[in-house]
């Protein structure tokens, strides 16, 4: 049960306590919803409900995933000091990243309720902007009771809340409800080891199982293990524990089916309350509503690794606290708590010249700071394009390669927040203690948008822990964006692949030019280097050779030369594509559907040809060994026998040396010789599977034979 207090401003508190004859207790049971609005692509929604009184949020329900007829059965008791203010009920569709979609709202007028009587209430949800839309209904059970005898207790509660809110200016601090919803108090690490004796769901007597985990709004999904009833995953997931969430992790097992809905294989529920902290528990959990058992390792770690404070209160400004943090991440403690890599402190100072998102020419901006799965936000500064937040956020660093994302939104009443701008800052690029202005970027982070934000960031970490953390899998996001089909994205990815392929082709052409003696000086140097390396080759030379380009590029960077022209090329490419995208939006007639179709067609043809080439060579290798063409298979046997004898009797060093000398001198011996690759020439003679089908003779139908027709018709 949650206790909600309608907190009033200090100036109004005295008046409320004097004029109101008593307090009221409002008991509400949020039962269920019917035919709610569709907000997700899959034809469903993830609804949750908010209650507000006097403009202040007093209750938020849990989120029911993928359901238009959700059942909550949640009870809340509220103390209200006035029946003049109605209960404002709002329903939202949960989308990670503050893009929650509005699903409807309704008012419950408290003056109309009978006292001390349980009433069943059905609220019709409406959208003020689209009043004709049917958004479904909510079922509530409501009881309103006078609290004459408890007036003194309620008065004390109000005065206590007034004192708390008066410590700092109310517009400059997060509410307790808001703060509690963001900060987490511990980590639950779950290692999904294996499952035993699962139920067969496919016709072949096997299943393709994967597992879903859910703790509140946090969700994870394991990889799919094909064709097995005893899968082994060996995957790890980390959840955050919040005070208001129950200590239960919902686990479901599913069978992956291509082209149709996945089959449910069972579920289990893990109660975290009896598990001791700082200890790994091995759990063998049987599946309910199914067959089999899951084997898990669960570790609870109690730590407040994120925090919010005002600019006047931050730990790194205290020399004693800073010294303790530096000691905690010193080299001497490199092997103590390897998951605690470091900490980052972000001061969100202010923003300037933001985009006007409202019709009044102003915005209601607030700022969201994200690091991996940790997400905190500032208060909202209303009707201001140059807001000042002056907030300090502290995060625990689990991976020094994480990217700090700072996003500015415009708050909209009853609608999802509008995007104003964003910056992404890799932790390794941060200059400690530097107050810096960052130009805001677009949502895709490919181009600028209006406004700048002023941040001051400090990162303290242990280099040894950070290096070890680099060698383990990266932390997954709770919820990833759904993949979408995009012409710009398709062209962008195609151009990226083409640039990588062209780089390899250019390197091959450069090597081939040494064989072709286009530059005699270069070819002589390459030949001498080849002979020297092959004659003296040892295995340690492989990592040594990889060190050389790293050292060379480091020298260039240290001397002030930019060796990363490819980054600038990619930036230009993305800007060009953004311009094309804007032109498509502004002039749809000139860039019509046919032009877009042709652009996608060109990319698809190139991808299609590349896939055909790769598949054909794979099939030709297979057909060489399965005697599709006996002559070529016999030829392969002879070549492999000769190669076996040569390698057995002649050291590999001499064979490679002879091959290189042959390649280098071939052009000198025969200037008009056409360069070739003997292995690819051999494989080009082997038919692919498609060619095998094309060359196969059809069985002759004797009923249509010419000789038979002559016999049947002698005259």
Automatic annotation (TrEMBL):
Q: What's the protein's topology in the membrane?
A: Multi-pass membrane protein
**One biological process term in Gene Ontology:** regulation of neurotransmitter secretion
Q: Name one GO molecular function term.
A: calcium ion binding
The membrane spanning regions, by residue number, are 527-552, 631-650
Entry's Gene3D superfamilies?
Answer: C2 domain
Q: Where found, per UniProt?
A: Membrane
Q: Specify the C2 domain's residue ranges.
A: 9-123, 164-285, 319-440
Task: Give an example GO cellular component term for this record.
Answer: synaptic vesicle membrane
Q: Which residues form a coiled coil?
A: none
The UniProt similarity line reads: Belongs to the MCTP family.
Under PANTHER family, the record lists:
C2 DOMAIN-CONTAINING PROTEIN, DYSFERLIN-RELATED
From the Swiss-Prot or TrEMBL record, give the protein name.
Multiple C2 and transmembrane domain-containing protein 1
Say which species the protein is native to.
Answer: Salvelinus namaycush (Lake trout)
Q: What is the organism lineage in this UniProt record?
A: Eukaryota, Metazoa, Chordata, Craniata, Vertebrata
């Amino acid at each position: 049960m949650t206790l909600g207090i309608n907190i009033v401003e200090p100036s109004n508190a005295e008046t409320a306590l004097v004029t109101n004859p008593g307090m009221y207790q409002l008991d509400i049971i949020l039962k269920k919803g019917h035919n709610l609005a569709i907000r997700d692509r899959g034809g469903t929604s993830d609804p949750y409900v908010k209650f507000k009184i006097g403009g202040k949020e007093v209750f938020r329900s849990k989120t029911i995933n993928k359901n238009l007829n959700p059942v909550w059965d949640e009870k809340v008791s509220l103390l209200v000091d006035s029946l003049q203010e109605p209960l404002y009920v709002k329903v939202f569709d949960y989308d990670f990243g503050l893009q929650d979609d509005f699903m409807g709202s309704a008012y419950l007028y408290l003056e109309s309720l009978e006292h001390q009587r349980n009433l069943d209430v059905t609220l019709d949800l409406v959208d003020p902007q689209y009043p004709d839309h049917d958004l479904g209904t909510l079922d509530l059970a409501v009881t309103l009771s006078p609290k004459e005898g408890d007036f003194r207790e309620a008065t004390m509660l109000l005065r206590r809340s007034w004192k708390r809110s008066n410590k700092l200016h109310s517009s400059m601090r997060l509410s307790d409800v808001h703060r509690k919803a963001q900060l987490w108090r511990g980590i639950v690490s779950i290692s999904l080891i294996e499952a035993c004796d699962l139920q067969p769901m496919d016709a072949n007597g096997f299943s393709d199982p994967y597992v879903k985990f859910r703790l509140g709004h946090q969700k994870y999904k394991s990889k799919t293990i094909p064709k097995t009833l005893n899968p082994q995953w060996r995957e790890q997931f980390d959840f955050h524990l919040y005070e208001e969430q129950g200590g239960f992790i919902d686990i479901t097992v599913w069978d992956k089916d291509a082209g149709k809905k996945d089959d449910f294989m069972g579920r289990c529920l893990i109660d975290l309350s009896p598990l001791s902290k700082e200890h790994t528990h091995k759990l063998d959990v049987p599946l309910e509503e199914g067959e089999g058992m899951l084997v898990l390792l669960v570790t609870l770690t109690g730590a407040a690794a994120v925090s919010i404070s005002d600019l006047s209160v931050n730990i790194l400004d205290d020399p004693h606290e800073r010294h303790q943090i530096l000691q905690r991440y010193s080299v001497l403690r490199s092997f103590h708590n390897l998951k605690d890599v470091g900490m980052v402190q972000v001061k969100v100072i202010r923003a300037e010249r933001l985009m006007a998102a409202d019709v009044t020419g102003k915005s209601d901006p607030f700022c969201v700071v994200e690091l991996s799965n940790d997400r905190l936000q500032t208060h909202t500064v209303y009707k201001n394009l140059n807001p000042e937040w002056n907030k300090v956020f502290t995060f625990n660093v689990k991976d020094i390669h994480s990217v700090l994302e700072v996003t500015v939104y415009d708050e909209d009443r009853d609608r999802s927040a509008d995007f104003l701008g964003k910056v992404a800052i890799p932790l390794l690029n941060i200059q400690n203690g530097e107050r810096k202005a960052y130009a805001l970027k677009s949502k895709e982070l490919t181009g600028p948008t209006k406004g700048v934000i002023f941040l001051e960031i400090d990162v303290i970490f242990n280099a040894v822990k950070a290096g070890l953390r680099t060698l383990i899998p990266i932390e997954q996001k709770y919820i990833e964006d759904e993949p979408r089909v995009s012409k710009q994205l398709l062209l962008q990815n195609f151009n990226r692949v083409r640039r990588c392929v062209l780089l390899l082709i250019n390197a091959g052409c450069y090597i081939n030019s040494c064989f072709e003696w286009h530059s005699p000086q270069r070819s002589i140097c390459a030949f001498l280097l080849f002979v020297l390396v092959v004659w003296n080759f040892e295995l340690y030379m492989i990592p040594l050779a990889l060190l050389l380009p790293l050292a060379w590029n480091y020298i260039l960077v240290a001397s002030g030369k930019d060796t990363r022209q490819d980054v600038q090329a990619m930036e230009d490419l993305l800007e060009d594509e953004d311009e094309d995208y804007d032109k498509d939006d502004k002039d749809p007639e000139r860039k019509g559907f046919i032009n877009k179709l042709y652009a996608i067609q060109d990319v698809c043809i190139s991808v299609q040809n590349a896939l055909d080439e790769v598949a054909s060579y794979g099939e030709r290798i297979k057909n060489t060994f399965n005697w599709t063409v006996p002559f070529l298979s016999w030829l392969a046997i002879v070549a492999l026998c000769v190669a076996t004898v040569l390698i057995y009797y002649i050291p590999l060093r001499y064979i490679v040396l002879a091959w290189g000398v042959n390649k280098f001198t071939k052009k000198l011996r025969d200037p008009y010789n056409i360069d070739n690759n003997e292995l690819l020439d051999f494989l080009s003679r082997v038919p692919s599977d498609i060619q095998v089908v094309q060359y196969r003779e059809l069985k002759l139908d004797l009923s249509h034979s010419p000789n038979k027709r002559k016999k049947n018709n002698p005259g």
